[in-house]
């Protein structure tokens, strides 16, 4: 019985590892080349899995895209949260959003916002992918709002939410414009504006 459980456990772990490998491979391809320019066959070829194996884990390219978006977002939130919380309590933790973005921009793989890139490529009626992206963006606003509540004194709930949306817009503009201009000045300018807002 214990041998059967052990084999069953190994199979589950291996299945999970294969699925994660497909997600990571697709993530690199989607982020670098775009959703529409990345075909299923390229994901299969690059990941080294059989077509049947891929479809055993994902029913469609759309499902892989949702997994990609979740994978990118989960990694991003963990990293930016840890970075911001490593700063001194107060305004510096909010401004750290832009310091993190500058490090992200300096990374050789920086290719803008994965959400905006993806939403620009999908049909307008693709509710599944659009809903995932909107959820991620709303969660990011809530993250910023919590940063503000925890680090800015004498601010009420309504003010913190309005401020979070303003900081969010500065951040998103900084991502897009730094990618467009291939320069960090939009990030630095957004940080300066953020400092005035908070």
From TrEMBL:
Domain of life of the native organism: Bacteria
Domain HTH tetR-type: 16-76
DNA-binding residues: 39-58
Keyword Transcription part of the UniProt annotation: yes
Alphabetic keyword roster: DNA-binding, Transcription, Transcription regulation
Keyword Manganese part of the UniProt annotation: no
InterPro entries to which the protein is assigned, alphabetical: Homeodomain-like_sf, HTH_TetR, Tet_transcr_reg_TetR-rel_C_sf
Protein name, as recorded: TetR family transcriptional regulator
């Amino acid at each position: 019985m214990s041998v059967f459980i052990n084999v069953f456990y190994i199979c589950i772990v291996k299945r999970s590892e294969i699925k994660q490998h497909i997600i990571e491979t697709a993530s690199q391809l989607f982020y670098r080349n775009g959703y529409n320019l990345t075909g299923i066959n390229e994901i299969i070829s690059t990941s080294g899995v059989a077509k049947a194996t891929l479809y055993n884990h994902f029913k469609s390219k759309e499902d892989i895209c949702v997994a990609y978006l979740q994978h990118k977002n989960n990694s991003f939130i963990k990293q930016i949260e840890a970075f911001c919380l490593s700063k001194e309590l107060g305004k510096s933790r909010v401004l750290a959003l832009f310091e993190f973005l500058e490090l992200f921009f300096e990374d050789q793989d920086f290719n803008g916002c994965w959400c905006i890139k993806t939403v620009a490529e999908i049909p307008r009626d693709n509710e599944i992918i659009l809903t995932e992206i909107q959820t991620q963006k709303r969660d990011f606003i809530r993250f910023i709002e919590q940063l503000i509540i925890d680090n800015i004194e004498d601010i009420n709930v309504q003010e913190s939410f309005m401020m979070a949306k303003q900081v969010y817009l500065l951040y998103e503009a900084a991502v897009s414009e730094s990618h467009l201009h291939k320069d960090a000045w939009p990030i630095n300018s957004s940080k300066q504006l953020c400092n005035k807002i908070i």
